[in-house]
Amino acid sequence: MVALKCELSPVVFAELYQQLLSSGRDLRESVELRLADLGYDLEDLQSWAELYRANWQAQLPYLNADTAGDFACSEEHAIVASWLLAGLRNHSDSSALSYALDTAVQQHTLGTTGLEGTPRPLSLLPVIRGWTLGAVAPTSVPNLPMVLARQPDDEAIAAAYQGLIEHVLHLDVAAEHPWPELMGSAIYVRAGGLAGALRPPPPPPPNHGLSWSIEKLMGESQRQISSSILSRLRSNWNGWVERRNVLTHVRLDEGMGSATFSAATALVRTWDDVETTLLAITHFVCQEVSMELFEPPLPAAVAKDPWRRYLKRELEDAWWMSA
């Protein structure tokens, strides 16, 4: 399976930057400080938004659900936007901005001939989690799985997360009948592996295992996730490690808990059973990416003035801009 790329429509960036320019003073000041690191200011961001909007408007006569991906911006645009958003990671959670962005983009597609009445393609399905930009891979459920604009620095974690996305895309999430249990068990196994890799537990004494990793990640999530989602995730983790262990080992050693294999497999057979686990591990990976982007050094796609070097030119030189 070819890895999905976070190649988003120019209207996504037009609306994202306009939302940031229209945000409250504290958020706008943080955006301004982030832009200053690249030698830009809020007026420049306004001009970026205008050029993205012009590119979007110029492509409208040629746009439909099948061709939308051909008119999307290269991944580098999304990486720059993700870097900018990472500077806001200490400003509560990003769900309100994500919702506003998605709603604005949806309004554009509803009024676009060729896109009305069809499912939105990946390039028009933006999402922001943990102040990390991405796109929703089209499935029959909203918001998951999430294709990241920028991958985690750790190549193994990036590959493991990509594998999780591929697995979810092969699931029939709207199935009327339960899945074979191994399809859901695989999500538990990979989610646990990712949590342990993101925050490896310290060496013994006992009780420093996967539960420690999850608690550590949950503690770090409190500022990046809304209280309602945080409460939902905490409820999901109750007994989760024990279920994951019996799914992996089939039988638990004495003292490891009382969960049985049959009871655990009964809880991984539908989308509703595994959705919160997938949501949680997606948040954990996203907050890891935003943390990495928050700190220097600049990623290659952001260093050396990418706007002047090629992003602006890519937008201006697109064939539909002069058609």
Automatic annotation (TrEMBL):
Source domain of life: Bacteria
Name of the protein in its database record: Apea-like HEPN domain-containing protein
Native source species: Nocardioides marinisabuli
